[in-house]
């Protein structure tokens, strides 16, 4: 664990100049985006006027409007993406190495979908899977890797007029962390937040948990305080209790 003094020295020596440069870039970016918005807004306004006043060639008047909107999206996203990339390479990468030189950082990569599904935490296969900011390496004696992830599934319905409507629903959005336990086990153990008991109480919550067969067998732990906050599923009760004992 780094001390406060080490953190202050790291900031003054390694980060301060980069952050000052990035702040200047941010201000230039803000001015550039304002200019892009003004020019594209003006162009769109002119196209709208032409569209409503050009009776014979309305399609011709519509083409510049569509082109301006596409150009605005490309310029805005490209400008922001360049700044974010510079921030990650100048700041985030250095912070990761400061925390531990054995850690590596890949800003455009993420935890693989196979690892995500293999965890068993989220059994539903996502229709949209994306992420970034992968960190991996040896922390002490433990292999770790983690990244930002956003997974979603979609539903399709028809509205009152009979048109198809697609809605996206978040399964998980946050930091997904994988660590090597450095032990060999025969079965699997899954620990989840105990939402059922918090919502419905102990009796009904336990009933709902026992019905959740897709997770595996419900395992009751001897740690009363632990049971208040977590529910455990697994293939081997003795092994699950042993894992809990190692973590206490």
Overall description:
This protein has 248 residues and is α+β, with helices and mostly antiparallel strands. Helix content is 53%, strand content 25%. The protein is built from 7 helices and 7 strands. Helix 1 (4-53) packs antiparallel against helix 2 (58-99). It is flat and about 80 Å long. The two termini are 21 Å apart. The mean pLDDT is 80.
Please identify the structural class as seen in this structure.
alpha+beta
N to C succession of SSEs: HHEHEEEEHHEHEH
For the biggest β-sheet, the strand order reads: 1-2-3-4
Total strands: 7
What is the number of helical segments per DSSP (H or I, 4+ residues)?
7
- Judging from the principal axes of the Cα atoms, what is the shape? flat
Strand content: 25-35%
Percent helix among the residues?
40-55%
Low-confidence stretches: none
Give the distance, in angstroms, between the N- and C-terminal Cα atoms: 21 Å
How does the major sheet shape up?
A: 4 strands, antiparallel
> How many separate domains make up the residues?
3
Rg, alpha carbons: 26 Å
Rounded mean pLDDT is: 80
Layout of helices and strands, plus pairs?
Elements: H1 4-53, H2 58-99, E1 103-106, H3 113-118, E2 128-139, E3 142-158, E4 164-179, E5 189-193, H4 195-200, H5 202-211, E6 217-219, H6 224-229, E7 230-234, H7 237-247
Helix pairs in contact: 1-2
């Amino acid at each position: 664990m780094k001390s406060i003094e080490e953190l202050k020295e790291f900031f003054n020596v390694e980060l301060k100049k980069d952050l000052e440069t990035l702040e200047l870039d941010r201000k230039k970016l803000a001015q550039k985006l304002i200019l892009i918005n003004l020019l594209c807004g003006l162009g769109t306004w002119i196209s709208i006027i032409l569209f409503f006043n050009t009776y014979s060639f309305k399609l011709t008047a519509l083409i510049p409007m569509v082109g301006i909107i596409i150009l605005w999206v490309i310029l805005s996203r490209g400008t922001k993406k360049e700044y974010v990339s510079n921030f990650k390479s100048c700041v985030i990468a250095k912070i990761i190495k400061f925390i531990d030189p054995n850690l590596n950082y890949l800003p455009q990569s993420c935890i693989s979908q196979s690892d995500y599904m293999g965890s068993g935490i989220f059994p539903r296969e996502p229709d949209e899977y994306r992420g970034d900011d992968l960190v991996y390496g040896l922390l002490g004696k433990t292999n770790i890797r983690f990244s930002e992830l956003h997974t979603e599934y979609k539903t399709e319905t028809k509205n009152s007029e009979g048109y198809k409507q697609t809605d996206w629903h978040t399964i998980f959005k946050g930091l997904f962390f994988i660590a090597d336990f450095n032990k060999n086990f025969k079965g699997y153990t899954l620990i989840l937040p105990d939402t059922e008991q918090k919502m419905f109480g102990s009796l009904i919550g336990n009933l709902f948990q026992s019905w959740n067969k897709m997770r595996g067998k419900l395992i009751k732990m001897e740690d009363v305080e632990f049971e208040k906050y977590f529910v455990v599923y697994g293939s081997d009760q003795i092994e699950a209790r042993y894992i809990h004992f190692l973590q206490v």
